[in-house]
Design goal:
This protein is mainly α and 119 residues long. The protein is built from four helices and two strands, in the order βααβαα. α1 packs antiparallel against α2 and α2 packs across α3. It is elongated and about 60 Å long.
């Protein structure tokens, strides 16, 4: 039995996505893909890397299909768009500041209420 995939593609991954995450992810992926499609259609001459955008558009399409199928082959483009998307969402929500503030309050709460202070 072979110990590696002869086609060179990554193995498929079964997804376990909670129901409440599903709608959020679908919305985010659709919005991102539509934005890319708009850029490709409306500003093709101004784009520095149209081929990269086409790959990202396709990756979002695979992610949307994966939500329905419950399985995906996570190639490099899929991993890149997910990583970039996470960074964009974190920056938009000021995640680092929120995390810092949460930790500061929780640390103080545990000190002043060791029996009930849970975070």
């Amino acid at each position: 039995m072979a110990d590696r995939n002869p086609t060179g593609s990554d193995p498929s991954v079964a997804l376990d996505i909670p129901t409440d995450h599903h709608a959020f992810l679908r919305s985010v992926f659709e919005t991102a893909r539509e934005g890319i499609q708009g850029d490709l259609a409306d500003f093709p001459e101004r784009l520095r890397e149209p081929e990269r955008l086409r790959r990202e558009e396709a990756a979002y399409g695979r992610l949307l299909a994966a939500l329905d199928a419950g399985v995906i082959v996570p190639d490099r483009d899929v991993r890149c768009v997910l990583g970039r998307l996470a960074r964009v969402i974190d920056a938009a929500n000021d995640f680092e500041r929120v995390l810092f503030e949460h930790r500061a309050i929780c640390r103080l709460l545990v000190q002043v209420d060791p029996a009930g202070g849970q975070c």
